Amino acid sequence: VQPFFEANEDRIFGDAYDCVYFFTVPIWSGLFVCIIFSLIMIFGLCMIMDIKTMDRFDDPKGKTITINVAE
Q1: Which of 5, 25, 34, 38 could join 14 via S-S bond, C-beta 3.0 to 4.6 A?
Q2: For 29, left (φ over 0), alpha (ψ -120 to 50), or beta?
Q3: The V-type proton ATPase subunit S1/VOA1 transmembrane domain covers which part of the protein (predicted)?
Q4: How many whole angstroms separate alpha carbon 67 and alpha carbon 1?
Q5: pLDDT tens track for 13-64
């Protein structure tokens, strides 16, 4: 509130001036957290996609593996 804003005008109060930016601190914080979580998710997905399965198994027609158990 600005009383006696202009002495030569008839109005007592000046124009309202709201000093709020387009991006407030909560919006910046939310964007920052979303970007960090997105990077972690992308990194995790890349690591999961890079897992290689075995493509060579025991030959079913070859010699079988035998393990002797001795007590």
Answers
A1: 5
A2: alpha
A3: 22-59
A4: 90
A5: 656 666 777 888 899 999 999 999 999 999 999 999 999 877 666 667 777 7
